[in-house]
# Entry
Amino acid sequence: MTSVAECIECEAGTFCPVGSAEAIECAPGTFGNQAGASMCERCRAGTYQDTSGATSCKACRGGHYCAEGASHPLPCPAGTRNDESVAVMTSVAECI
# Structure
């Protein structure tokens, strides 16, 4: 590139690191809710994102937990179950 006019603005769901020639989709477990981002944000604990190029994260499903940056809800390990007193499980430690 030889001028700012040649720069592209990345769409929501993508990011463009410095010097990028093209936009890169946000990976599963991350999202980009604004255009022009230089990086994607990790899904917060209690949410997940299982697809690339997402603009938001999904709420974790009942009986599962979702740690920060989760790309899928994870079930409680065998011999444990979800703690019904916890509205949104964010770690395996919340399985009882």
